[in-house]
Design goal:
Blueprint: H1 9-21, H2 24-31, H3 35-49, E1 54-57, E2 60-63, H4 65-92, E3 95-100, H5 102-119, E4 124-129, E5 143-148, E6 155-168, H6 171-175, H7 198-205, H8 224-232, E7 238-240, H9 246-250, E8 262-273, H10 280-292
Parallel strand pairs: 3-4, 3-5
Antiparallel strand pairs: 1-2, 5-8, 6-7, 6-8
Helix pairs in contact: 1-2, 1-3, 1-4, 2-3
């Protein structure tokens, strides 16, 4: 095949998105194009190289053998171009934008970011928090710390810590029933968020399955850190990640009645786009996390 110097770069970008998403419609949504425009660009690329790249079926497309050969090469090429541009961006923009859940940000990141900046004085840090899972293609964030089950194609992931949980409450609240000695004792107290999906997992691990928490007053606070603050204020029993509240236990603000830990299969991960894996500021933060967090795994 003789490739013209005017080969259709836009069509290659459309092909990369369509091959990755296996959908002309979703590729159009990602690129801001209509499905008709996506189909046109794919046809233009096929005419240019003289090969059919997709098999079109009603409401479904699949790659041909030629498409299967081309797709990883094109994806790698765009990743290299993206990395080259990000390297130039890093030279002129020394701000690392981190997106995190509010709880991880307040209970872990806030305690360590100062050390990171002392070790990397040329990198400013901007921290964003929300419970939403960001789309890197529509966000200014460079990296994110997510709680989930490692199901994010196209992102480089590093395991940070297990996301397990257990009931915690203030000593004063525990004293109102002369201490929490069995898992059933928790049911004698107000539960801060009885609708939290962690509760059934924990009660099952504690040998008390099929506990019915319906009908109890619901108070959704949006972040575990806020539930912990309510628990410290004796407002009820929270279900919390114990590693985040070791200081509160040591100072007597919270008690953890049981060593029993619940687990729903989700963990904390450091993630960022595969194409940005060689960014200097991302590499610096990744190395810092690897050194600082004992449970970090590549």
């Amino acid at each position: 095949m003789k490739m013209s110097k005017q080969f259709p770069l836009n069509a290659l970008r459309v092909f990369e998105a369509a091959a990755r998403l296996m959908s002309f419609t979703r590729a159009g949504e990602e690129l801001g194009l209509t499905q008709t425009a996506v189909s046109y660009q794919i046809k233009l690329l096929e005419d240019t190289i003289g090969e059919q790249l997709f098999l079109r079926r009603p409401r479904q497309v699949s790659l041909t053998e030629a498409g299967e050969r081309l797709a990883p090469r094109i994806a790698e090429a765009f990743a290299i171009m993206g990395d080259a541009l990000s390297t130039l961006h890093d030279a002129s923009e020394g701000t690392l934008t981190i997106h995190s859940t509010a709880t991880f940000a307040s209970r872990w990141l806030a305690r360590h970011l100062g050390t990171f900046q002392l070790e990397n004085p040329g990198i400013a840090v901007r921290l964003e928090t929300s419970q939403e899972m960001i789309d890197f293609s529509r966000s200014q964030a460079d990296i994110a710390i997510r709680s989930g089950k490692d199901e994010w194609p196209g992102l480089r992931r590093h395991f940070l810590m297990r996301n397990h949980f257990t009931p915690m409450l203030s000593p004063d609240l525990a004293a109102t029933i002369r201490g929490v000695k069995t898992p059933e004792d928790i049911l004698k107290l107000r539960i801060i968020d009885p609708g939290d999906p962690w509760w059934p997992f924990w009660f099952a691990a504690a040998g008390v399955p099929d506990v019915d928490l319906s009908g109890r007053p619901v108070s959704r606070m949006g972040a575990q850190a806020f539930e912990a603050a309510a628990a410290i204020a004796s407002q009820g029993v929270g279900i919390l990640q114990p590693e985040f509240y070791a200081d509160d236990i040591a100072l007597g603000r919270l008690v953890q009645p049981f060593d029993i830990l619940g687990y729903d299969g989700s963990d904390y991960w450091l993630v960022y786009p595969e194409a940005r894996r060689n960014s200097k500021k991302i590499r610096a933060f990744r190395d810092f996390m690897r050194k600082t967090m004992p449970t970090f795994r590549d």
